[in-house]
Amino acid sequence: MPSRLGRYAVRRRIGSGAFATVWLAYDEQLDAPVAVKVLADNWTDDHQARRRFLEEGRYLRRVESPHVVQVFDAGELDDGRPYLVMSYADQGTLADGLEIDGLTAGQALEVVRQVGAGLTALHRRDILHRDVKPANVLFRSDEGSVRAMVADLGLGKALDVSSRLTAVAGTPSFVAPEQAQGEPLDARADQYSLGALSYLLLAGRAPYSHASLAAAARPVPPPPLSTPERPYDDAVDAVLRRALAADREERWPDVEAYVDALAAALDGTAAGPPAPWLPIDPELTQPGGGPAAYPEAAQPAEQDPRSPAARRWPAVLLGVGALVAGALGGFAWEQSRPDPDVTVSDDDGTFEVTVPASWHRAVATGSWTPPTGDGEESALSVGTDRDWHDPEGTGEGVFVGVLGGTELPEQLPQHPECAVAGPRSDDVHDGDEMRTVRYEDCPGGLTVERAVQVTADRLVWIQVRSRDRATANRVLDSVAVYGM
Q1: pTM for this one?
Q2: Domains of the chain and any CATH numbers
Q3: I need a labelling partner for 246 at 20 to 30 A (CA). Which of 91, 229, 346, 401 fits?
């Protein structure tokens, strides 16, 4: 960990991803915590990556809104890497909040209002976000209340550029069909994503669970919003369905019109939330002092690759490969102290995964002998206890291992202990073929299996057991493979 980034004293690493690492730092001159985003060193000489990185800072700097993450400063380190100094979200992300307690209808509407205000500010500056989702909505304490901010414009584009050429990118369950198809975009693409986010907040479930952008390009109408547990008037459902129309011409004229219509439809259902509309976590908010006074609070986690060849597979269907429970012999298990988020690597440096602190209790970083009869191969296991993989138990954890194979297995491991077995899903990501099956209503929540063909004769198998989808998604999205 560097002691300083420019003039900013570093507190700790918040997270890292394909293009950048984010650090919690301290501005000694202004007596305030900040988030410093630094371009990953393996992209220093890539002019396109540098341009995209700096574009995000310029886009954010052009917008003056309390509901868009601010950029305060920019600079360059001695090794030539650029960095951005941004608002520090001391109250975590919307994804964090959904994992813990969910939101009331009034709180959900307030999130939509504030995110909508941030998107409107971007659109007025002719900027398209293109990746609206819970992980990109940050919460910050502000004079006794909580403020929602739109963050991460890594996919953001100027509207004039988006109208001419648009790369196919985004999060499948939230992306607009025209964006998934690579068509020219306008602000209605962000409205669609906000509609999908609104549906999730109000219904407690996402309108779609697309496994890929190809599936997102051909959406069907979502299930009815209202359920016996969460009843809503038909007018609320109608507002959301218009925002989620596959044909953008059928959507609301703009984000403001959509938010106003949703508020009117929810009138009486979503009573105005008290102030603060979200409770402030005092453990995350600490006034004054130097870097040591600031807690290790949440910021959107991105994972740090050690080389441009690092492979990652998104957790769209919560899926990743299978391991046989009895094949874990020979691992060295350890007990670990808790941390807000723990990143673990195997002994060979082949795998890396980030897990919740509660999972980081039994760690195996050695090798394993695959059931295919191959010799010892790289593997990594992290779980809540040594027997987290017991089919009848309630433990949580993730296992990643290499085994030989020239093609994906026709059948992934079965889980008769689970009441629901999802259909097999095949996909391709960054040229890697993968096969996924998700099992639900298991003793411990859900179990997911995925096999990925990483080389001509090597597979990576991953198994995840988790109580909830959100945590499984977060862990699976963090899995990285190096040197293969």
Answers
A1: 0.57
A2: 4-88 (3.30.200.20), 94-265 (1.10.510.10), 311-481 (3.40.1000)
A3: 229
